[in-house]
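Quick board copy: two proteins, each given as sequence then tokens.
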Amino acid sequence: MVLVVVALVLVARKVLVPADFGIGPRGYMYGWHRAGNEQQWKEVKVKYRTAGYCMECHRDKYDEMKESPHRNINCENCHGPALNHPEDPRSLNIDRSRELCARCHTRLPYPSSSRGVMKGVDPKTHHVGLDCVTCHWPHDPRKEGHQR
């Protein structure tokens, strides 16, 4: 019975796995790279552009972030992928919701990790009904937010 299962697995592998899967210039290699689909990967549109890309047009916000407690956060962590930006400005999300900030700033009881020392709040009790940007400027949360 075991030999039948092993034989079925080997036959399935021969049929389903491309011949060049795992084969590289140095012989057999683990990973997802296949020489046969290199062109397909070259044609894939990159969704994320990095903070350096954003800096080209938004130097003031970039500089402000780099001097703030949010200095290690990439722009696209909050704004989403800049794939079609600036060609389609509406494709870039301006999310001012509490939920966005709560992803990182909900207090977690991990005293032994760096996540435990990050300033956190309880979103169920901390100024319920207000977006965080009402009081905090997102690029530099030490600054005052959008007063309405």
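And the next:
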Amino acid sequence: MSQQVRAAVFRPDDDRIERAVELLDSLGATPVPDPMLAIEPTGATPEAGEFVVLTSKTGVELLDEAGWEPGDAVLCCIGPATADAAREAGWTVDRVPDEYTSAGLVDHLASDVDGATVEVARSDHGSAVLTDGLRDAGADVHETVLYRLVRPEGAGKSAELAAAGDLEAALFTSSLTVEHFLDAAAERGVREEAIAGLNDAVVGAIGPPTRDTAESHGIDVTVVPDEATFEALAVAAVETAAPTYHE
């Protein structure tokens, strides 16, 4: 695949951005790392519940560092990365939905949580689809905010590249990465130009919620992988972009 596929990636500035860069390199793309999320832990831990829902690898790692354990609760994880991190912490993962989204977990648990207490532990930007859906299924839901997601200072070089027509692909891994990208573009005075640049490129969204957020802001999404993982997103986006730029 051509080195001309410059692909912006917005993962947090930790091992995730490093792994993303390595993956894009291995696919023959030119990575443009531009972290759009920084993590501010709250120090909170989940309350007791018959079911405990964890939605991210970050949440698992923070709880593991704090010495928290699920005990007798039915531990539910959205997605393989979260589940793998929980198993690495030594916990038994009881439930993982087939669809790695809030709606997918609601569908997975709906028939089992009527009258049960469900503790949802996640970031401050978690979707109401999860908590509202579980309540509609009859659960007594409590939510604990484990960490806040903020935009790092200096983020936005990819927005300037997009505005200049110098990106071939952009890989959005959450609705918040979309919003922070646009906020960074606006701060640099290139919001509309950056959207136009993205619409001339291949835009990948990790799942339907991220796609919907991007499209609501006028960004045309080209690729949504069948599996909601970064690897699937990167492969699909680079393969889609490569034929256009391959010489």
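Board note added afterward: The longest strand covers residues 140-150.
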